[in-house]
Amino acid sequence: ASGCKIGPSILNSDLANLGAECLRMLDSGADYLHLDTLLQKVPSRKKHKIIMKQASLMNSFFIRVKHFVPNITFGHPVVESLRKQLGQDPFFDMHMMVSRPEQWVKPMAVAGANQYTFHLEATENPGALIKDIRENGMKVGLAIKPGTTVEYLAPWANQIDMALVMTVEPGFGGQKFMEDMMPKVHWLRTQFPSLDIEVDGGVGPDTIHKCAEAGANMIVSGSAIMRSEDPRSVISLLRSVCSE
Ligand code: DX5
Ligand code: ZN
Hints:
Radius of gyration: 17 Å
Bound molecules: D-xylitol-5-phosphate, zinc ion
Strand order of the largest sheet: 1-8-7-6-5-4-3-2
CATH superfamily: Aldolase class I
Number of helices: 9
Order of helices and strands: EHEHHEHEHEEHEHEHH
Shape: globular
Distance between the termini: 7 Å
Number of strands: 8
């Protein structure tokens, strides 16, 4: 895809030095920052599939789970501090891996988030949430987990700015890239040529080719960049392969 953007995920960075880590990424040529807010546990894939079967394709569906992922990172107070430290320029893509995404829209907007990316699996009313995010002045990202069929996202595709196809089970950095998610990306690219499509999970120099080929243009990369001695060259490599 032409004009790919690279958004380092700082989940695997030194969270005690988050501001400095973000600055290091921006100084290394990051196009935006992918900030993972996560909390709570995911339903099992099997249970999830059964629920998805029961849901009708065009209707919104709702999975009431207490928890979304088995991990916690940070919330809007930290985002507010990052905004103060980093200034107005950096684009903050909030990846909200939380089970009631409705409740953080306003606080995140006030804290200085630019884009609010929520999980389709986590809400019963995506339409209302999309509207609320826009009314709060943010861009809208819609994410699906590996177990979620891409067709469920389609009804919302014309109302969102970005679709996020997860290429690992959400929760942790450093997991293995799931190549079998690429048909989802390809399908979305074919159906919605101008939609921004983000991939997240296990993306780095070894896997970027597949993402680019499938049509992703917003590339999240966590450990591959954070753990490198030379993040600048990893970022520019990812961008150049992706934009070929
Ligand atoms: C996973 C997060 C990702 C993660 C990516 O739940 O959404 O953003 O930090 O890290 P890597 O690139 O290491 O898989
Ligand atoms: Zn993420």
